[in-house]
Amino acid sequence: MSEPTRESGAPLLRIERLSLALPEGADRLYAVDNVSYDLTAGEILCVVGESGSGKSMTANALMGLLPSGVRVAQGRALFDGQDVLAMDELSHRALRGRRIGMIFQEPMTALNPLMRVGEQIAEVFEAHDLLTPRARKERALALLEEVRLPDPTSALRAYPFELSGGQRQRVMIAMALALEPELLIADEPTTALDVTTQAQILHLVKDLQARRGMAVMFITHDFGVVAEIADRVCVMREGKIVEMGEAREVLDHPRHDYTRALIDAIPADVVAAVGRPADVLAAVERPGGAIPPQRDGTQSTPLLSVSGLDKVYRTSGGWFQPKREVVALDGIGFSLGKGETLGIVGESGSGKSTLGRCIVGLNRPDSGEIRLDGVDLSALEGRALRAHRRRIQMVFQDPYASLNPRIRVGMAIAQGPIANGVPKAEALAQARALLATVGLDGGAAERYPHEFSGGQRQRIGIARALALNPELIVADEAVSALDVSIQAQVLKLLDDLKRELDLSLLFITHDLRVAAQICDRLIVMQKGRIVEHGSAREIFNSPQHPYTRELLEAIPGRRDAPAPVTATAGVL
Amino acid sequence: MTLLSSVTGRLTAAALSLAVALPAVAQETPSSGGVANVAIQPEPPGLMLPLVQNAPTQRVAGNIFEGLLRYDADLEPMPQLATSWEISDDGLTYTFHLHPDVTWHDGEAFSAADVVFSADVFLRETNPRTRAILDHVASIEAPDDETVVFTLKQPFPAFIQAFEVGTLPIVPKHLYAGTDFYNNPANNHPIGTGPFEFAKWDRGSVIELDKNPNYYEAGKPYLDKIYWHVIPDAASRAAAYENGTLNIMPAGSVENFDIPRLAKLDGSCMTEAGSEYFNPFAMLWLNNREGPTADKRFRQAVMYAIDRDFAKNVLWNGLGKVPNGPFSSTLAAHDDDLQPYPYDPDKSRELLAEMGYKGEPVRLLPLPYGETWTRWAEAVRQNLEDVGIDIETESSDVAGWNQKVSDWDYDIAFTYLFQYGDPSLGIARTYISSNIAKGSPWNNVEGYENPEIDKLFAAAAVENDPDKRQAMYDQIQQTLHDDVPLAWIMELAQPTIYRCNVHDLITTGIGLNDGFKNAWIEQ
Amino acid sequence: MNFFKRFAQNRGALVGLVILGLVVLLALLAPFLYPDSPWRMVQRPFLAPGEVSGFWLGTDVMGRDVAAGLAHGAWVSLLIGLISTVVALAIGVPLGALAGYFGGKVDDALMRFTEFFQTIPNFALAIVLVAIMEPSTFSIVLAIAIVSWPPVARLVRGEFLSIKHREYVEAARLVGQTHRDIIIKQILPNTLSPVIVLASLMVATAILLESSLSFLGLGDPDTMSWGYMIGAARTVMRQAWWLSVIPGVAILLTVLALNLVGEGLDDALNPQLARAR
Amino acid sequence: MAYVSLILGRVGKAVIVLLAILVFNFFLIHAAPGDPAAVMAGEAGATDQQFLDDLRERFGLDQPLPVQLWRYMSGVLQLDFGYSYRQQMPVLDLILERLPATLLLTGAAFCISLLFGIIAGALAAMRAKRPSGSIIMGLALLFYATPLYWVAMMAVLVFSVTLDWLPAYGYSTVGADYTGLAHVGDVAVHLILPALTLGLFFMAVYTRMTRTSMLSVSQQDFVKTARAKGLAPGVIQRRHILRNALLPIITLAGLQAGQMVGGAVLTETVFAWPGIGRLMYEALMQRDYNLLLGIFFFCALLVILFNMLTDVIYRLADPRIKQGAT
């Protein structure tokens, strides 16, 4: 165990001309192409990029976690002067956990489901032959306290599934910090979390880093997060570094177009962004698109009105396990006018998706009314229901799961009309036209979904929803799974289509920033109830409910809320 | 002894007679002690011989129960429970004098009352074969404790053949009189007078018999114990004999293909003796009622088509005998002059052409008694297909076979029947028209009706004059030979394989079923 | 395209495919190579392989040509394996699909039914069925199918349960496709790859099961199958080893090949796992 | 309290399945050609109508089928499984006499196959890319593909007849009358060949399954976590991968343990093991309806018990289920 001998000021980590080769047949040669950067002690470096940019690969290489098939083609990664990539397994293992800690994106799967939390933390000491079993336990408890887990004593004895996502991520952090490593690698540690939790975790990381003086390599796709914690930023795209520099510098004066696009996609000030998707897009696409007129939803005739909607999920328990009940909807009521966009915002478990599913008819509410043009849908059956159902269509969250991998895109779109009696040839022709409408060429109809990117698939999903000429589209987290730059494009498409076709839009999202860009009115949900309801502008400017305020404050990158003007405001 | 140990699978008739003469040749004095380990397959359903007539039951329980008589290789009566007997000149009265010092295994004394109870009450109720024989009997009486008198309705010369242990086992009256025979607790622990007592039965594994210390024949039995090993797989039985676990393998314990090999092992002996009384006779039921088999020419064609010598040599390792007609060659009434049907496929085809057989499918039902029988059915099928008969094999288990044969639902079916030492006991039943009835696989299943044959069998059975009787039997054999009511394919050999240090294992014509009272093991 | 490439990269799967191809070829060519009935007794019994020219695999207990039996047996064994698998799929796939798709009471009822068949020990049930229907190719195929469909139903049900909540299925529901169309067009094609893998293994199991039944004497007496050959040779194993070894090896190779192909299919159809191998 | 009612519900379902199995098999068996009376008459070598009628009356077979079913089922509901026609003993006695042998055989085979299968599978997974891993998988495939009875025959030939190391058949040495430890040893020696033969196939199954399962678990995120901690590969394999990989194997093993009991017919036949599988085959052949139904009942009961046991073990192994999470 050599004590760090590096002279002060020398970087803790130095990546030199690193290239990681992808296996044959991949879409490009290198996952990481000739990348160099430094990281000094006490510094937080954010590695930013969209999916496929290779941003996590370097970290994985450092930890010896490269997926099979990916290999180091050239370069070095000097940690404290030693090339980690050239190390033998034993010395590398001694480094992992001890001097370099790592936390991962998915707190749900990153912990062994069969081991108690305490054991998993103690394992870190065991791996490096430190402490007695008893002392390990004590340290584990101390660590859980340090990461501010509520009731650390019982958490020690808990299994991972008994903890929430945020709590698990805290456990992960405790584990990574157990041996006080000099370098902490955090690979998208907040992406899978709710905003409020994300804010807490970011705060925790920053706090711990400051107290311990570690170096942190923070990998993210979100410039909001960058703004929140980074000292320095390294922006990656397709395996290459496009821009690197001090965080404030990059945020304020991005030199590269790509960086700018990423930053622009995230409105630093949601209030300023309200109802301005076209503005947002201006940075990504060609400038254009009129500023939408301010509309007030209450003025239009209600297309959809919902009242007294209740829904409780009951699990019927096997033998030994009791029945469980989860209240998903509790007395929900609202209305949606023609041509209006209503946002439903809430964190996971708020019941927002259940609401959407009830409205399209995928779930049946326990009680309450859903009226479309005055007709109560929940009272309809069979043919009549089907006839009404086509008037409400849905755009789904996951662009990968929402298209049948074995059905050609054209057919996928034409299926609806065919099922409703349109002749096949006609339906297919119509599908081609719709593909053009959503910005894809007609040849796309003959291809299978896997040949398209996520954003393109989401366009196909929108085309499919449009095929039946619906009056209302329910978009359930329709852009959440997309990269930020793509998000903006899809949002714009939705907004344009809505206007062209005079559609109503029910936009369900967990992301206030997204909601801000497209919604006329907002509903904020928490635990199955509507806690706040009003025009987007009202809600962002003067949130009434504490929960809404909490949500708003948690938005990363929103500095010193509610003060609206910051340095970044200028670019918007 | 040494002669026998060199005997191979191809035992000839000469060797057979040597084997029978074995007790006379043996010079050594029997010594007591030793254990017999015998294969038994299938596991008997029960050991109460008078109730259960199954072959393995007879084999095991023949040591526990006894009949009044035994029979030598020429089927002449020998004393057992009866020390002597007289038959009146008119053939109507049979008087038996019983052994005076016999006790049951539970210590009770044996007496003539037990014999009367067994024959007149017990067996009449429970045993169909004995019941048929006892139909000839008008009365059974015990003038004193050591004498039993059977009075017949008319002369029935074959009656003296009916006193072996399997046909007329003596049951303890003191345990069974007045009870429900089938649910008597004694059934699970049978009490007899025989040389061995029931000791233990681990179902699925082994049946244990102990020496009867109070046996009335002084010094006998010699063996201390008999273990009957239940091993369902023939190859496993062979392996057990080879490694010395078993020392006696009754006929049927191993597949025929394995017999020569086992007989050739060091210290291994084989004998065909002991099958004289039962003399199993393999045949093909040919359904005389319908289909091509109803035509006599077709049935003859079958006889010509089947290569019986091939079956004997290949399937039965040369053991057994190709019969010349319906009577087994060991029977006194056998007509030696009858010429067997030769293997002559051309003649067979001729007959088929003559009758106008057009290739109608004919069903063949094999006997589900193991590999040899399956192979035999395959060979017969091939023989018949070679002459142009279209055969469909119908496979079935024992129950299905029974059902089909009993219900006459077959065209050609394999079977074998015991001869029981006399044509009137073992043969007439398959040819006389009064015996045509559904429900039994052992009667006139083929549906052969010939009034002349009916008359001849009836007359021969009660004919006291041997010459006249023989004349009738000759005529029967000739007629049946021409009519081919069924196809006689083989007189089966019953080879017993045993370690050569076991002596006097088989001393009667009933073979292993007669108990091991004389058997001893050279120490 | 990708699928074949991935399959071809798996050496084991290729070897399996080659063996399987040879067996199929043998089965197809049997009537031409050995036009005579394989039951015909053509030479002295118990000829060792190569002892007499023209009988390169020797003769059996009754002087029948082992090579002829092997060739005709290939046909029978493969056919029984294939047909019983097809029948089992025909029972299991619809049941599993309906149970998984409709869930609730339908699922409950169908799964009780499936459980019922799984509660009776397979081999015992197969024996009883064959014994009751009397051994014939038909009864053997049916019995094998009846005991082997429950895993199919369970697999398909599981796949349906997971796929029916996929968004594309829900999209199909929203556009008003009928249940039948959703089951057949949307979900079923996406369950096929695990079913195909399972089916390839089921063919192998069926061949083994048939041979076990034959061993117990419950084979079709009119067809020469490999199981029959082993069963018939069992009693003469000591005198003529080749009689049980040759068909034994034939079964082993075929089952082996089917398994290799199955694994290859599994790898090729589930590329995610394949990479780990 | 909720648990009690859940268990009761489960038991109730099991009882219904068991009764359904009895009814199903009742009709199945009666559909077979021939009846026990015919079989017994056939074996007697001589018979007449009176004999058959007597037998059928005694067995109650002269009654219409529904009456027979009613009588049988009402007996079963009072736990009376009737008399074996053929063996003239109560069915329950016969089965209970044979059951221990079967449980011993299948239990031993099960443990052997599970233990060695998992070890071999784990080794193969850890050496997935090395020749030794391929060899293990090759062997597993070989055992998987070899007919069981063929292995049994060869094993007897080699180890009993040729080498004379192990007894060829049976449950214990006949006539030895060992007691105490000697008896245990004797039975154990007899157990080796049949248990190995029976276990071999399942061992291959578990080997393959363990390997696949481990390879798929090794892709999961928490394995990355474990590596990031700096844990040694052996610890990761054992503590993290294997433990999680065993969960699906528990399910499979539970299913198969039940199946093994009734599936040991071939092994029991070749090795003359006095178990229930053989008894079943014999009862079937002899149309011993009551006995056969009784055996089916007990086999099904064992399957159900094993399934319940599996559930319990699964619950112990996987904390998520115990607490009602998914």
From TrEMBL, chain A:
Which Pfam families does the record cross-reference, listed alphabetically?
ABC_tran, oligo_HPY
Its keywords, alphabetically, are: ATP-binding, Nucleotide-binding, Transport
What InterPro entries has UniProt attached to this entry?
Answer: AAA+_ATPase, ABC_transp_ATP-bind, ABC_transporter-like_ATP-bd, ABC_transporter-like_CS, Oligopep_ABC_C, P-loop_NTPase
Question: Keyword Cell inner membrane, does the record have it?
Answer: no
Keyword Cytoplasm found: no
Limits of the ABC transporter domain: 13-263, 307-552
**Superkingdom to which the source organism belongs:** Bacteria
Instruction: Cite the GO molecular-function annotations of the record.
Output: ATP binding
Q: Which family does this protein fall into?
A: Belongs to the ABC transporter superfamily.
Protein's recorded name: ABC transporter ATP-binding protein
Q: Which organism is it from?
A: Salinicola endophyticus
Taxonomic placement: Bacteria, Pseudomonadati, Pseudomonadota, Gammaproteobacteria, Oceanospirillales
From TrEMBL, chain C:
Q: Which residues form the ABC transmembrane type-1 domain?
A: 74-262
Query: Can you tell me which residues the record assigns to a coiled coil?
Result: none
Q: How does it sit in the membrane?
A: Multi-pass membrane protein
> Mind telling me which Pfam families this protein's record contains?
BPD_transp_1 (PF00528), OppC_N (PF12911)
Q: Which InterPro entries match?
A: BP-dependent_transpt_permease, MetI-like, MetI-like_sf, OppC_N
Q: Which UniProt keywords apply?
A: Cell membrane, Membrane, Transmembrane, Transmembrane helix, Transport
Task: State where the protein is found.
Answer: Cell membrane
Could you tell me which PROSITE patterns the record lists for this protein? ABC_TM1
Recorded family membership: Belongs to the binding-protein-dependent transport system permease family.
- Tell me the protein's name: ABC transporter permease
Tell me what organism the protein belongs to.
Salinicola endophyticus
